[in-house]
Amino acid sequence: MGSRAARIRARADRPPHAGAAMQMPRREAGRHLHVIGERHAPAQSRIFDIPVDLAQPAELLERITGWVGDGAPARRVMYVNAHVLNRSLAVPALRGALAQADLVYCDGYGVRLAAKALDVEIPHRMTGADWVWGLAAMCEASAQSIYLLGSEPGVAAQAARRLHRWYPRLDIAGTHHGYFEPGSAHDDRVIEDINQRRPDIVLVGMGTPKQELWVQHNAHRLDSGVLWTVGALFDVVSGRVPRAPSWLADNGLEWIFRLAIEPQRMWRRYLLGNPVFVSRVMAQARDRHATGA
Q1: Does 39 have pLDDT greater than 60?
Q2: What CATH number corresponds to the domain at position 38?
Q3: Nearest-angstrom CA–CA distance, 272 and 232
Q4: In the beta sheet, which residues pair with residue 149?
Q5: What values do phi and psi take at 290, rounded to 5?
Q6: What is the domain count for the chain?
Q7: Is the residue at 226 inside a domain?
Q8: Cβ(181)–Cβ(167) below 8 Å
């Protein structure tokens, strides 16, 4: 009886949405990365001419955390979904930031559908609400520190407290909101704070394209191993915004849930942006078939 109760408590104490995809043993993931890192360049698919990594989520986490402490300049990690790809066609600087990032991964079913339509290899989907718990566990185990930068005042701090609830030994070097103007004196103070705390990984959640451009412009100024754009991740981790039920999220329908709970903020992205994205994908697919590419 006591054993059964302990198992129930253990299940209840697991971080929300920490999927099995993030739980590859460290040594096993390391063997995969040895092949990727030393024998071959990482496999990629080009979607809207942006290179999207094809590795499994656990392998991506291993590669990213493996960059910490290697003496190289700060690596830039970014994601793409339908919204980010749409914006990249409207904002050349965003397109440049994505093209020059050290790693770009898929965070949306729209990208997977685009890959299928364009007849390129389909990337794995790695969404922040899943990988953040795996990252926290890995950083706690390896004594790597993180800094949460973004969202409205107080949200990043609340997200940090929730991460500490599940991973009490996780070193969260600091937090700061994302409501400041790039290039301002406030921006300079944020960079100074990060450099004083010297986190290994900075998670940057300011929305697209602000977060990508901020990382692109400031990577050379920051004393950190990895700068990682994360969108609205802190809103979800803090509990401020609920996550979609798994039966929606696992079937590419999370956007319906987000539209329902934040209609004023999301209607343009989804009701206008999704059809535009589909039309662009279909146009590119027709061009590829016409040219035999």
Answers
A1: no
A2: 3.40.50
A3: 20
A4: 176, 204
A5: -65, -35
A6: 1
A7: yes
A8: no
Q: pTM above 0.90?
A: no
Q: Is 220 helix (H, G, I), strand (E, B) or coil?
A: helix
**Beta bridge mates, 227:** 76, 202
- The least confident of 4-13, 34-43, 114-123, 157-166 is 4-13
Dist CA 266 CA 195 (whole Å) = 34
The pLDDT value recorded for residue 29 is: 36
DSSP 45: E
Token look-up 């920051």 returns: 222
Task: Name the phi and psi angles at 77, rounded to 5.
Answer: -115, 130
Q: Is the pLDDT of residue 9 over 70?
A: no
Q: Could you give the CA distance from residue 255 to residue 263 in angstroms, rounded to a whole number?
A: 11
pLDDT above 90 covers what percent of the chain?
A: 78
Mean pLDDT of 54-67: 97
More confident residue, 6 or 147: 147
Give the Cα separation of 263 and 167 in Å (integer): 33
**pLDDT above 90: residue 7:** no
96 lies in which domain range?
Answer: 31-237
What CA–CA distance (Å, rounded) separates 122 from 119? 8
Question: Residue 278 is inside which H or E element, if any?
Answer: helix 273-291
pLDDT-derived band of residue 251, with 50, 70 and 90 as boundaries?
A: confident
Contact 140, 166 (CB under 8 A): no
| Residue 181: closest CA among 210, 223, 216 | 210
Q: How far is CA 67 from CA 52, 126, 193, 201, in A?
A: 18, 19, 22, 10
Q: Which candidate, 240, 234, 59, places its Cα nearest to that of 134?
A: 59
Element (DSSP H or E) covering residue 76: strand 75-80
> Is residue 115, in this structure, part of any structural domain at all?
yes
